[in-house]
Design goal:
Chains A, B: It comes from Mycoplasmopsis felis. Chains A, B: It is found in: Cytoplasm. Two copies of one chain form a homodimer. Chain A has 483 residues and is α+β, with helices and mostly antiparallel strands. In chain A, 36% of the residues lie in helices and 27% in strands. Chains A and B meet through strand 2, helix 3, strand 3, strand 4 and strand 5 of A and strand 2, helix 3, strand 3, strand 4 and strand 5 of B.
Chain lengths: 483, 483
């Protein structure tokens, strides 16, 4: 009891200090421990368990699209990495470099992969002969290292886990279509499994991936109004295939360079879950990817055989369909309930000696903390309902927040004010790198994306939001402070 | 047809040159591609698919034992690594060392994990307070790097994938018992899922893990008679807990160092599968971990709607229970059959226009190449039978080979002869490091293990097998040439 209450007291209210709230939440709830070196974290069972379920569900989505998993080397020889120049320039300052083995210096340096475009390029070069081999659609689950200066658990750490998909196509149109298909797949996945609404859009030239022709993104809004880029899909055109010589014989028997895409989501998603759904009691895990979906808590069960019997029976019944944990320890009820809450378990069932005499248990949902007195014969039905209802409720709350806090602004003074209010600001913008840098300096906001057609936008042209630009444009860009 | 037959022709018969046979098999069958740098390989879908199924099944075994998955950092700071001296000495020559980020030299070097004992030690130190926190039982799926001088795909590569379990206990007996429980778990898993028989035993002091008090191993016999260490489980005693200060308050409220174990299996198992079951047509994948369990091959289906209809129907029916691939391409039958064989798919169903008129299809099992004419209504039943029968047949053949080629020898001249014949030689031995080194120099054989009690052994003492030793001993050790 002592320990757990201390831990819960440690969570700073999110209204008071959001950054501190986030750190408090990730340190608790069996989520992470800090590693020995700056910016390194240990994924404890509750966070790694979420990641495993994300892997499982995404694998099932990928598999239906015929995407096959492969695994490529961790280390990239310097000579291979340097073949695509824009890519090198983008990643060079963050590359962890292996120069020695034991005390011995290596003849050639190796970089720990920050992403695997060049390794896949090498594989594709070896694997592709003719148009019959295309499209070639691979995915990899892997760890990558980017030596970031400022770090934040899940959101920006020096090593993170992700999946990176890499494809080759014979036609640019097909590749472009696939790039967009994958970003929509991610948006759907976040909606259906993580209960996170996102805005789908294209990155401005300044914000696109180093080496890509265009980058699509899904942007989510955290509870403090900041944006979190939650998944990206890149159309690489022939940038890598020309640098690496990845060719195929087309149906006229002529050699041509392939058209490529790459796309990924990472353990950042764990940060997105916390900052989209969490509250002052800790993380709230959406039911479909919760490592434990139901906590069954026996209260004072040493005194009541009936409590033990009912708990055991519910555990067996519910385990057929759900991931269930049974706590039969003799810890006190307050501790058990707090422990379940801080770990973000979507539903807990409290079984106490008095209620059980009337065949009643109490079901508590983590999102609203509502307590539902339920006859033991109705538990299964109630749980079935709650699993979907909690998901819907989490999604709808987040969607409402996103909608209410996205504003259309054409005046720069208002722009600055709304950015400061923590809004997503949707404004006319010409997309010049220089203008973006100035806006960032002046307001702290970066361009998040140019929303794709599905997103409602004004018909008429407006003056570019950047003070020193008099162009009229009908290109509208979302700006926000971002993680 | 051309391409595939060329590939099959490329497989050197195993009787002629086993090493070349192995290389030919791994290069074909959608298993690997070589990476850019020496000793690095790319896991293609057919090999990575096996590994994913091994992960899935082992996770399910682990989960029943209450083992939780976590993920720790890839990079180990030099200062942390150096705390356990025997461990450092054992791994130092193989450590890939990160010294720079971009062009900038780091203040402290980092090693890419060759194994994660020191990282877990650090986590345990932070997580454990009292005996209530014990036992603590974690597992990690990860990539590790060991800079080996000679490399061989799957068997010895500079980066490999594995799981490493790490536990802390309050009592030495409990920890020792857990060490043995895990090695038996591995032996059972290899038998039940990979159809590989193994000998369970303890490593001699010379062969034990650097930093362990004792190491248990499972040793499998490859088709050339060589041993492959296929899984290990280490009792670490208090070696790491003392070096890292991992203590707990016991029930007398006194601080004590924890007792630890660690245990792992790796992508070596893919090499074990190939060299235990493979034949001159390529890999044979045991049904329970085959990414594709059934290939349905349409023959001349463009001419026959009935072929297409039956194939589709079987695909739908069988997919409910099995991992099935349907090949409706218009490639020729010979190509399709060879392609299925070289990829090691346990069962293929050939559907041709003539047979199908009589409601007949041909089922071919990959292990014996036996062809079974089957009425389409009996396919499901036949497949159910074959999945188990192929597994049993693969296991029994391997077990028979292991039994027939393990010999008890007490005379050193005979020892040398039998080692040369590719046998596992079971001999009396005192276990002195010096003697083992000499035997290795003279015969090429290393000690594999001291088989545990379950293994039948002579009652009486014999003179140690080492020429220059006159001790009589009742400790018997298995020697063999090994990968």
């Amino acid at each position: 009891m002592q320990t757990m209450n201390k831990e819960i007291d440690k969570i700073t209210p999110l209204e008071q200090d959001f950054a501190k709230w986030y750190t408090d939440v990730v340190k608790n709830g069996n989520l992470i421990a800090y590693g020995q070196s700056k910016g390194s974290i240990i994924f404890k069972p509750n966070s790694y368990g979420i990641w495993e379920l994300i892997q499982k569900e995404l694998n099932s989505v990928f598999s239906k699209k015929g995407i096959k998993n492969v695994y490529l080397p961790l280390l990239i020889p310097e000579s291979l990495f340097k073949l695509e120049t824009e890519h090198v320039e983008g990643f060079n300052p963050e590359l962890a470099t292996v120069t020695h083995v034991g005390e011995k210096e290596l003849a050639e340096k190796f970089y720990i992969r920050p992403t695997s475009e060049v390794l896949f390029a090498d594989l594709f070069k070896k694997s592709i002969n003719s148009y019959n081999d295309l499209p070639l659609v691979y995915n990899q689950w892997a760890n990558v290292v980017r030596w970031e200066k400022t770090t934040n658990p899940f959101l920006r750490s020096r090593e993170f886990l992700w999946q990176e998909g890499h494809t080759c196509h014979s036609e640019p149109l097909e590749a472009r279509r696939f790039t967009r298909e994958m970003i929509k797949t991610y948006a759907k996945f976040l909606k259906e499994y993580l209960a996170i609404p996102t805005i789908i859009g294209k990155k401005t030239p300044k914000e696109k991936f180093a080496g890509a022709c265009s980058t699509y993104t899904i942007e989510a809004m955290m509870k403090d109004g900041k944006a979190l880029q939650s998944g990206t899909s890149h159309y690489l055109a022939q940038n890598f295939s020309k640098a690496f010589g990845i060719t195929f014989k087309n149906n006229q028997n002529t050699e041509e360079y392939v058209y490529q895409t790459s796309w990924g989501v990472s353990t950042r998603l764990l940060g997105a879950i916390i900052m989209t759904h969490g509250d002052n009691r800790g993380i709230i895990i959406p039911p479909r990817i919760a490592p434990t979906q139901i906590d069954i808590l026996e209260f004072f069960s040493k005194k009541s055989e009936k409590v033990q019997k009912i708990a055991k029976q519910l555990y067996v019944d519910l385990s057929r369909k759900y991931r269930v944990n049974l706590d039969s320890s003799d810890k006190n009820p307050g501790f058990k309930a707090s422990n379940s809450e801080i770990q973000g378990v979507p539903v807990r069932i409290e079984i106490g000696p008095r209620d059980v005499e009337n065949d009643i248990v109490t079901i508590v949902r983590r999102d609203t903390l509502e307590k539902i007195q339920t006859n033991i014969n109705d538990v299964k039905k109630t749980i079935d309902f709650l699993m979907d209802d909690i998901h819907e409720n989490l999604y709808n709350s987040a969607k409402q927040r996103l909608d209410n806090n996205t504003v259309f602004v054409t005046d720069y003074e208002e722009f600055k004010k709304e950015i400061n209010n923590g809004k997503f600001v949707y404004s006319p913008f010409c997309c010049l790198d220089y203008a973006e840098e100035r806006i960032k300096e002046e307001t702290g906001a970066s361009s998040r994306c140019i929303p794709i057609r599905e997103f409602e936008k004004p018909d008429e042209k407006h003056k570019c939001i950047f003070e020193n630009c008099d162009n009229k444009t009908n290109r509208y860009v979302i700006f926000a402070k971002a993680y």
